[in-house]
Amino acid sequence: MEGSLVKDNPLLLPLNKEKTAYDGFITVQERHFRLRILLQTDQQLKKAKFYCSWQLKHFLCGYEHIVKQRLQQSADLVSFILELKTVLEMELKSRPKRSNIAAPKYYSQLITEIESLGWDKLLFIDSEFKMLRLKAEDSSGRQHILTLKLKPKHPTKAPECLADLPVPLAIAWTSQTTLQQLHNQFMMVLESLTEFWNVLDEIDSQTWILEPEKPSRADTMRRLAIGNNVSIKVEVDPRHPKMLPECFLLGADHVVTPLRNRLNANIHLWISELSVQFVTPIASKPQSQTRCAMTPAAVNPSTRPVFMSGCEHCPPAGKASTLFLESVLTAASPSQ
Q1: Could you tell me which residue ranges the FANCL UBC-like domain spans (predicted)?
Q2: Which fold has domain 2-94?
Q3: Of 113, 162, 192, 239, which is most buried with the most CB atoms under 10 A?
Q4: Going by C-beta distance under 8 Å and a sequence separation of 6 or more, which residues neighbour residue 100?
C-alpha cells in the first residue's frame, strides 16, 4: 500500500513511523490541494479524521456525505485517496469556466484593506474572497449593509456595490480606491438620506400602515389607513422627503371623489413641516389599530388634530377619513 500511495501522491507524506498521520498535497488537473489524514493505530479508515485546506473544502462543498461514505467504506488509504481524487476531478470538470485562484498579492492587499477598515465592520466574506458584506451605522443608529462583489481584475475594475437604498448607489472608484474610502462614500450616502428615513420611521411608528407589510430601507411608498375602506398611498421623494408626496386615494368613488376634489382645491396650502401625533386607542380595540392619526403642522392655528375611528374622542366613522385627509393633505383649511 505504501509504495502505491507514494507513487500516486508523491507530495502526501507520513508524519510518523507508525504511518498513522499523513500530511501534504494531492494533485488533480495540475492543481495542488492540501490535506491531512489521521488514522487509528490499526490504520482503519472508519475512525479516521480528515482535514483539508479551505480551497479543497470549497470544491468539495456538497460532496461531504460522499467523502464521509468513502472514508467509512474504503479498504485502505490508497483506495480512499483515489476515490477522493475522482470526486474532485468530476467537480473541477463540471465548472471549467470558473476563475483560477487569485495571486497571493490579491489576498494580502485585501487583508490589509480590511485591517485598515476594521474587522468589526466585516460581516461576511466568502471562501473565494470575492464577495464581502460590510456593516455601517448612520448618525441615527440605523444599521445598514453594503455588499461588495469584487471583479476578477480588482482593484483595476470597480466592484459591484449593493445596498438597501431608495436611490442608486453611485460610487467613485479608481485603481487606488481602498475599502475604507469606499465605506466612507457609503456613509456619506447614508447621511444624505437621514431626513428621508426620519420621516418614514415617524410615519411607520405613529400611523396604521397597510403596505408594505415589512418595509425595507429602500421602500419609498406607504399606504395608510384613513377610514373605513379608505386609504391613501403616498410616494415620498428620498431627496426631498418633506415636500408634497405623490398621493393616490384608494376606495369607493363616492368617498374618494370629494376627497380628491378637496385635495386638488387646496394642494397649494401644503407645507413641508410634517409632524405625526400618537392618539390613545380605546382599550377594547385591537392593538393593530393603535397607530391611526397623523397631523401636519397647521398654517391656520385654529386647525385641530384629527382622530381616526377607534380612538378616544373620535368623530363618526363616516367623517373620520374626510377630516383626516383634509388635515394631512391640505395642512389647514383657509379661514372663512
Answers
A1: 104-193, 195-276
A2: Ubiquitin Conjugating Enzyme (3.10.110)
A3: 113
A4: none
